[in-house]
Design brief:
The protein is α/β, with parallel strands linked by helices and 503 residues long. The strands form three sheets. Strands 8-7-6-9-11-10 form a six-stranded mixed β-sheet, sandwiched between helices. A five-stranded mixed β-sheet has the order 3-2-1-4-5. The longest helix has 21 residues.
């Protein structure tokens, strides 16, 4: 009998999705259908099915042969992973090529399942769902650049607005322009002018989806020495990114720092991706470019969720799962959420909705590093949280979550904690992380990291404006020098008179 590792959630059944794009084909096996999906296995091949489709009208024959061989492997990998379901979707090249139907029929025979060929409207819809699922909340224009097409769609909260599909995928644009960047710019400008929905996006984010744009963003990170190598919700400032994109659009990429990390097959398409993005910036005037690691596949997966699960907060869901897998007690973590809320209220500190979300998540994650050596718990936890595959959180928010855990383990007055990463968090987040960590350092000494105590603790106002953290007399044995000392640290951080009392 094969037993699942305790590092896996026991109630999940794996599900596999194969995404047949114009440039790449990818197999992703997910741990299960969840609000914050976790990847069990991920493999792609840059097949280039759509290469030459403009001139020939047909899928590239060599790419078709290579794809069939890979489909056999992908099917075997899906079965080996234990996936209960295999979903296969195909996009622009397969739906537009003259020999597309024959290719799909052959692929279905190899894969042993039906392939869903998405229309342009469906492709835009699932791409929009991917962005909606990954940002909390999404409010801007989502653009998914594939090898054969560009899908643009307005998103706001759970609402999907106007959308359009344009023939501006990297391979198609390269083919139409006959490898001329000047011609590609003219074509992109003419096509982008048809996307009237971009004007409604002025001053809002543009969500960039697709491998070419992710590779551009990765190079931008390296060029600017950005310290957090997390792609999702990476924000490219318009003023600083335009000169970078203009350089790439001219084809000046060989000497760009980090270019050796981009595959040669993808490298040739970077200028075309930059050209299209520059035209979108000019037409839309967005507030920023926000990179989305989630696209059509994740949007399709999101569509399989029950309606009530779609409404769940993806960051809280992921944090809850990590607490379940790594904390000493997930119940204790949940109690900490309520206790810190009561403590902030007693202190008269008001949270924004976003700050409350982040505090909730930080409490759930507070104990995930307990198995590490005490001297490295803070550093290890900071790295795990800062680089986790979380969605529904921006980069400053990630650093808030990571700093709370670092300060909790390494001390609230430790200013040497990850200075480069700390610089990405706002000063308010750094101060709030210290405060929350100071609260945790008090209460963890009273609970031994186990549930049942926090709901019995309460804050009481005392004469002279002091606040007392009251321990019921039946658990008076928890009172001691260490918690008194930690409460003094909290008093210093918060600027309030505090005392520990037994009643």
């Amino acid at each position: 009998m094969i037993s699942l590792s305790q590092g896996r959630l026991q109630d999940r059944r794996p599900l596999a999705i194969i995404d047949i794009g114009s440039n790449s084909i990818r197999l992703v096996v997910y741990e299960g259908i969840a609000r914050s999906p976790t990847v069990l296995f991920n493999e792609k091949m840059l097949a280039g099915l759509g290469r030459g489709i403009v001139s020939t009208g047909r899928l590239d024959p060599e790419a078709v042969t290579r794809s069939m061989e890979e489909f056999r492997r992908f099917r075997a990998l899906s079965e080996q992973s234990g996936a209960d379901e295999l979903h296969v979707i195909a996009t622009a090249a397969a739906r537009e090529a003259e020999n597309g139907p024959d290719f799909i029929q052959r692929a279905e025979a190899v894969l042993g399942t039906e392939i869903r060929v998405l229309s342009g409207r469906e492709e835009a819809y699932y791409s929009a769902l991917g962005v909606i699922s990954g940002f909390h909340p999404a409010d801007g224009v989502a653009g998914d650049l594939g090898g054969g097409s560009l899908e643009l769609v307005d998103v706001k909260g759970e609402t999907i607005g106007d959308g359009i599909t344009l023939p501006l995928g990297g391979l198609r644009l390269q083919d139409m322009a006959k490898n001329s960047y000047a011609t590609a710019t003219r074509i992109a400008r003419e096509q982008i002018a048809k996307a009237s929905l971009l004007k409604a996006g002025a001053g809002r984010p543009f969500y960039a989806v697709g491998g070419t744009w992710r590779n551009l963003a990765r190079l931008h990170m390296i060029t600017t020495n950005y310290p957090l190598a997390v792609m999702h919700h990476y924000e490219m400032n318009i003023a600083s990114s335009v000169p970078f994109l203009q350089k790439v659009a001219r084809g000046d990429i060989d000497k760009i720092k980090g270019i050796e990390g981009v595959s040669k097959a993808r490298r040739a398409l970077l200028p075309y991706g930059a050209i299209v993005l520059l035209e979108i910036i000019a037409a839309m005037q967005p507030s920023q470019i926000a990179v989305s690691a989630l696209g059509v596949r994740e949007g399709f997966l999101y569509s399989l969720l029950p309606e009530d699960e779609r409404r769940a907060d993806p960051l809280i869901s992921a944090s809850e799962e990590l607490a379940l897998l790594r904390a000493r007690s997930v119940t204790h973590a949940r109690e900490l959420v309520d206790w810190t809320a009561a403590a902030l209220a007693a202190f008269g500190i008001v949270e924004t909705e976003e700050e409350a979300r982040y505090r909730h998540s930080a409490c759930l994650l507070a104990d995930i590093g307990w198995r590490a050596h005490p001297e490295y718990r803070g550093t290890q936890s900071l790295n795990i949280i800062a680089h986790a595959s979380f969605i529904g959180v921006d980069h400053p928010g990630r650093l808030f979550l990571a700093l709370v855990n670092a300060f909790r383990n390494d001390g609230v007055f430790n200013d040497a904690v990850a200075p480069e990463l700390k610089a990405l968090a706002t000063p308010r987040y750094v101060d709030r992380a210290r405060l929350l960590a100071a609260m945790m350092r008090v209460v963890y000494l009273l609970t031994a990291s186990m549930p049942g105590v926090m709901p019995r603790l309460r804050w009481e106002k005392r004469d002279g404006g002091a606040l007392a953290l009251v321990i019921p007399s039946e658990i008076a044995g928890l009172y001691g020098e260490r918690p008194v000392g930690r409460l003094a640290q909290l008093a210093r951080i918060s600027g309030r008179k505090l005392e520990l009392a037994v009643v």
